[in-house]
Structure formats: structure tokens, C-alpha cells
Amino acid sequence: MGILWFALQVYILRSMRQHETNVSQYIQQRRGKNPYVAFFSSRVHRLQQWSLCLLSLLCVLSVHISAVKAEEARLEKCAPHYEKIIEVQERRQKFQDGINLLIEMHEDGELDKKMLDSTLPLWHTIESRLRQEVTALYDKAYAEGCFDESLRIERRNAP
User: Fold this and answer.
1) 104: which of 26, 29, 86, 113 is 20 to 30 A away, CA to CA?
2) In-domain check, residue 159
3) Burial level of 14, CB count in 10 A (0-12/13-18/19+)?
């Protein structure tokens, strides 16, 4: 499709040369000639200019639309990975908030050391398992190209 647009633009550009020839011939042989030749040539030239402009705009839009479609396809492929990663990270955050609350309760004297000591190993075990799970999810997503850094750099939104 892009080749067709390009070929049409080249055709219009080449045919625009004819306008200059028609107008210069008219100016050279102005006396006794019909002025409509130059008039219509000017109108055709203006129409060609607008056509070329619109075709260029269509080319740019078609390239942009195809890039957006490619991005949508990538997001559809990667959305399940993103959702799973967010879900696991939210669970990790909830456990972290819970252990932080227990530590604060211990510091305030509301929880004895024995109870805190029995809870911390359990939290470490759960945190370790969730960390391994999210790491595996990230590895899988990276392998499938869901975190392509070149796209972020290309769009200039890399940190």
C-alpha cells in the first residue's frame, strides 16, 4: 500500500513540471492566444499541489496507524504477563505491610518477641516464594519482548 502512495506522489510531482511549461509558453506567446490555457494549467497545478499534500498526509497517517496496530498487538500479547506481575507484586506489598505492622506493634510493646520471632520466618518464606514467582514472570515477559527497552528509548520516555 505504501508503494502505491509513493508511486502516486511521484506521478503527481512529475506532472507538476508540465504546469511550468504551459505557463511559460503562454507568457511567451501571449498575444493572440487563448488565456484559458494558462488559467486551467494554474488550476490543475493547484489541484496537484493539494493532492500531493493530502497524499503525503495519508502516507504519514498510514505509517502511524500501522505502528499503533503493532503496539496494540504487542500489548495484547503482553497484557496477561503485566496483570500477573502486578497481582504478585500487590500480594507481596500486602505481606510487607502486614509484617511492618507487626514490627511496629512489637516496638510499641503490643506484641511480644516470641510471637514476632515465630512470624518472621513465615514471612521470609512467603516473601521468598513470591519473589521467585515474580522473577520467573519477569523473565518470561522479557523473553517474549514485553519489556523492550529500545521501544522506550525510541519514544523518548526511558528514565
Assistant:
1) 86
2) no
3) exposed
